[in-house]
UniProtKB/TrEMBL annotation:
Record keywords, A-Z: Cytoplasm, Cytoskeleton
Molecular function terms, GO-annotated: actin filament binding
Matching InterPro entries: ASD2_dom, Shroom_fam
Biological-process GO terms, alphabetical: actin filament organization
Keyword Cell division: no
Source taxon at top rank: Eukaryota
PROSITE patterns per the UniProt record, alphabetical: ASD2
Higher taxonomy: Eukaryota, Metazoa, Chordata, Craniata, Vertebrata
Protein name: ASD2 domain-containing protein
Source species: Cricetulus griseus (Chinese hamster)
Length: 137
């Protein structure tokens, strides 16, 4: 149960961090929007997301504390080597979730870049096809 809760909280923290970053980028790129409500809307989103992020960090701290308490239970039943493996598993789980999210974000960014590159090349390819072969060479 503890590792499942840890997964959920870490994923939630990563999601909120990403959303906060996007709102921050949107605020930085807002340059005199013709819609005055845009700034207020983004600031409100930022305030709400920041509050949720702080709550999630507190929840993560509570889970870390609970992990220390729960760790004593398997310590009574597992060998020293198995206990070290368990502790390593719990610590690595969060790191691997973070690494997985970073890789997924990089893949998504690459896919977006490929899509933009593909779209930027399409008009050029269409123009090259419309030029007769004698003129193109």
């Amino acid at each position: 149960m503890l590792t499942g809760d840890l997964d959920n909280v870490v994923n939630h923290l990563l999601s909120l961090s990403g959303r906060l970053a996007r709102v921050g980028n949107a605020l930085n790129n807002l340059d005199d929007s013709p819609f005055p409500g845009d700034l207020q809307s983004l600031l409100e989103k930022q305030r709400i997301l920041t509050h949720k992020h702080e709550d999630s960090k507190e929840l993560k701290e509570n889970l870390d504390h609970l992990e220390c308490i729960v760790f004593d239970i398997p310590a009574n039943y597992l060998s020293e080597e198995s206990l070290a493996d368990y502790e390593h598993f719990v610590k690595m789980k969060s790191s691997l979730i973070i690494e997985q999210r970073e890789l997924e974000d990089k893949i998504h960014l690459c896919e977006e870049q490929l899509k933009c590159l593909f779209h930027s090349l399409q008009p050029r390819e269409a123009n090259e096809r419309s030029i007769p072969a004698e003129v193109g060479h």
